Amino acid sequence: MTVGADGDRRPGRERLSERLAPDGDDGAPHGGAIDGTAIMLAAAKASVPASSLPLLLDRAQAYLDGRASEYAQGFECVHEDDETAVFLVPLGHWDTKGLDLDFSHREVDAVRRAHAEHLRRVGSDADRRDEFETALEIREVAVVSR
């Protein structure tokens, strides 16, 4: 059940957070390696339907993961954990990759926002938020699965 903007509950509509909950390998879009909270924040700011963002992120993730070694060799990794490696990439990175993925301008912007929100979440957890905010002024972010 979802709460609408006016506070009413609408049965049959699921929240983004419900769709992102781990429920096995059912083939449903999960948003790639991006943190669920980062996806929800990006979806709130993006000009694409929130329901389409996890699918876009899954497509982008497959693209990035297929080139993980290129990212590891060519870009600065600012955070690694058991699941992801977060790279700072040049401005315009997502515009170029969006063309390869046949994303619209709005879809590219939504994916860019989700990756940036993921970095902000990592920065908050690691007490590096200011450092990462400064980096986002001159670079973009690519989160690659490990």
From TrEMBL:
Basic and acidic residues compositional bias, start-end: 1-22
InterPro entries given in the database record: DUF8048
Superkingdom of origin organism: Archaea
Region (Disordered): 1-33
Location of the DUF8048 domain: 33-146
Pfam family name, one: DUF8048
Protein name: DUF8048 domain-containing protein
Source organism of the structure: Haloferax marisrubri
Upper classification of the organism: Archaea, Methanobacteriati, Methanobacteriota, Stenosarchaea group, Halobacteria
